[in-house]
Specification:
18% of the residues lie in helices and 28% in strands. It is α/β, with parallel strands linked by helices. The protein has a single domain (2-197), classed as NADH:ubiquinone oxidoreductase Nqo5 subunit (Beta Polymerase, domain 2, 2-Layer Sandwich). A hairpin with a 7-residue loop joins strand 3 (56-64) and strand 4 (72-80).
């Protein structure tokens, strides 16, 4: 099976010289790394070519690698019902340069691209309605980035008495503290500190 996938990957790369950086087979799936500006062209080929027919966009998601210059991977997972195959296509991106939208190829991409924009801050050019999907309109930042702070300064809730959304300052029930996991009260270890003093 993996040899057939590798042959398919090489055929796709041959059909798009200069558009595909990597072809690999991992965990029984074909994976491609595509240049950002080529994503629409490559996905159109994957959808329409008779040897591919990846007509179902399962999802689009993001991955954050803050140590890289192109810190984000935008990952497209596609399924071919005709050939019973899956393919994973990745595009490397940063905050400054948008990734071309694939809504013109797959209607389902609209909400997935909005989610990726909302949670990671990856912009999509030519998207018909790129706005926040899961966070509030006034939300500052992108919560799935690895450098996003663990606590914010405000929390949002619906107030039943005022019949509107209100913003309250965050009130933490417990101050941040460093936990001593050698303490028998916070993290049991065997043997416990002090057990060496007990002689039976």
């Amino acid at each position: 099976m993996s040899e057939a996938l590798r042959e398919l990957g090489n055929a796709i790369k041959a059909a798009h010289p200069g558009d595909i950086d990597e072809v690999d087979v991992r965990l029984g799936e074909l994976m491609l790394v595509v240049k950002r500006d080529s994503i629409v062209r490559v996905l159109k080929h994957l959808r329409d070519d008779p040897s591919c027919l990846f007509k179902m966009l399962v999802d689009i998601c993001g991955v954050d690698f803050p140590e890289r210059a192109q810190r984000f991977d935008v990952v497209y997972n596609l399924l071919s019902l005709k050939h019973n195959r899956r393919i994973r296509v990745k595009v490397r991106a940063n905050e400054a340069e948008p990734v071309p939208s694939v809504v013109s190829l797959f209607n389902a991409a609209g909400w997935y691209e909005r989610e990726t924009w909302d949670l990671y801050g990856v912009a999509f050019s030519d998207h018909p309605d790129l706005r926040r999907l899961l966070t509030d309109y006034g939300f500052d930042g992108h919560p799935l980035r690895k450098d996003f702070p663990l606590t914010g300064h405000v929390e949002v809730r619906y107030d039943e008495e005022q019949k509107r959304v209100v913003y309250d300052k965050v009130k933490l029930q417990q101050d941040f503290r460093s936990f001593d996991f050698l303490s028998p009260w916070e993290g049991m270890t065997r043997p416990l500190p002090g057990d060496e003093k007990a002689k039976h």
